[in-house]
Amino acid sequence: MVKILDKRLHLDFPLGYHLHCLIAQIPNVLKRSERFFTLGNPEEKWRQVKATLEMVATGAPLRRLHFLMLPESSVPMERFDEMLSYIEQNFRNNTVTMFGVEHVPLSEYRKLLQRFSADNPEALALVETDIASGEILGMPVNWCCIAVKETNGKFRVFLEAKTHPFRGEEFLDKDHDLYRGRHFYMFKGEPACFNFMTLICLDYLYRDLYCSNIRQIVDHANHLYFTKRRFLDALFVIQCNPKPEHRTYREVLSGFYGEYLEDTPGVRDTVTVFGNCSNETEIEGVESHDGYGVSFVAISARHKMARVREQEFSTDDFDGAPICRLRFGTGTRLYFFNLPLHHELDPRSSRVPLKLHAVMQWKEPGSWVRTGEEKAYEHLI
Question: Is 163 among the domain residues?
C-alpha cells in the first residue's frame, strides 16, 4: 500500500491572487532497451526542454509562473544534473518544477535518494526495505522529480517512483517488471497555505482488491480538512499517455468530485491538472491512433465555466461528469493558465475562475512562438 508523506515547504504565494501554471506538452520518443525505455532522441529532447527552461527563466511572457509541468519520461537521465543546476541558478523563488526522467535501474534510483536524502529520508527507507527483501536492484524505475525553489532561495529536490506500470512496462519476468513506488508526497506550502501533490500517469487510476491510490488521497485530504481546516488545493498528474480520455479517467474524476456517497471536503475544491506529451510522441511497441496530447484541467462543477470551443482549447464536462474541464489540443504546445481561486457558485464571484493566458508552439530551429504571432518568446538554441 502506497504511503502519503507530508512535506512542508516555505512558499510565500500571494494571498488572494491567482497562481499560474505552465504545461509543456512536448513529444517523447521512447525506445525499448534491454530492461527499460530510454529516450531515442536525447539531444533533440534536451534542446526543447532547455528552450522551455530558458523562457521561464527570462520571464517573458511568464513572469508570474509558479508551477511548471513537463511530461513523464521527458528528461534524459544524462541531463538530470544540468536540469537541476539550471533551475536552482536561474528560476525565481517560489517556483515548483515537476518533470519525469527516463527509466533507470533501481540501484541508480537508490543512489539518487541517498544523494538527496535530506529531503527524501522516508522514501529512501521504503526503498531500502524493498531491496532487503530480494535481488531487485536491476529492476527499471519510472520516476519523476519535484524541484522546489523556496521563498528564501533554498533549493529542494523530491523524488517519486511510479507505483503502477502501463502494459509496456509490465512483464511476467520479474527482473524486467517495473519497480512499484511506495510513496507520494503531499506538499504543504506555508505561509501561503497551499497544498499540492504530483503523480505519474496511471498512479491516478491504480487500485487493487483492498484500496486505490485515489481513495487514499481523498482520505488523507479529508483528514487534513477535519483536523486543520485545510484541503488539497492542486493535484498535478504528469503523463505519457496514448489514451488521455479513456473512460477510466472520467470514472475516477466523477468519483473524486461527485461526492455521491459521502462529503469529501478535502478535495471538493481541488484543481486537477493533467499534463501529457504531444501527438508527435512515439513509444516502441505501443500503437496509438490519434492519441496523446489532450492535456486538461478539471475543477468541481461547483465552479462556473462558460462553454467555448476554439482551435487550441475547449471547455466541457467530460461527457457528463460532475466537473468543469478546460481541454487542450494534441499538438506540441506550451499552455500558460491560472489556477482558479477557491470559491463556489456565487453571483458575486468571477464568472470564469480559470483563464488561459497564452498558447505557444514550437518552431524550428528552436524557439517557442505564441500562436498567431511571429514574435518568438525564446532565444534560439
Answer: yes
Domain that holds residue 165: 3-370
DSSP structure class, residue 221: H
Can you read off the three cell numbers belonging to residue 76? 534524459
- The residue to which cell 532565444 is assigned: 379
Q: Are 75 and 279 in contact (CB under 8 A)?
A: no
Which phi and psi (to 5°) does residue 347 adopt?
-65, -15
* Burial (0-12, 13-18, 19+ Cβ within 10 Å), 89: exposed
Q: What is the CATH number of the domain that holds 247?
A: 3.60.110.10
Longest dimension (CA), the chain: 61
Note down pLDDT in tens along the chain; length 381 residues: 799 999 999 999 887 778 999 999 999 999 988 778 889 999 999 999 999 999 999 876 677 899 999 999 999 999 999 999 999 999 999 999 999 999 999 999 999 999 999 999 999 999 999 999 887 898 899 999 999 999 999 999 999 999 987 665 655 555 557 899 999 999 999 998 899 999 999 899 988 878 899 999 999 999 999 999 999 999 999 999 999 999 999 999 999 999 988 899 999 999 999 999 999 999 887 777 668 999 999 999 888 788 889 989 999 999 999 999 999 999 999 999 999 876 666 667 666 778 899 999 999 888 899 886 544 333 322
Q: Is 380 a member of any domain?
A: no
Tally of structural domains, the chain: 1
For the chain, what percentages of helix, strand and coil (3-state, to nearest 5) are there?
25, 35, 45
CA dihedral 206, 211, 214, 215 (to 10 degrees): 170
The answer to whether 284 and 30 have CB atoms below 8 angstroms apart is yes
**185 falls within a domain:** yes
Residue 110 CA to residue 129 CA, distance in Å, equals 11
> 310 burial class (0-12, 13-18, 19+ CB within 10 angstroms)?
exposed
pTM recorded for the entire structure:
0.94
Asked if 368 and 361 touch (Cβ cutoff 8 Å), the reply is yes
Residue 169 near residue 179 (C-beta atoms within 8 A): no
Residue 171 lies in a domain: yes
Question: Quick one: 193 exposed, middle or buried, by C-beta within 10 A (0-12, 13-18, 19+)?
Answer: middle
Matching residue, cell 517573458: 60
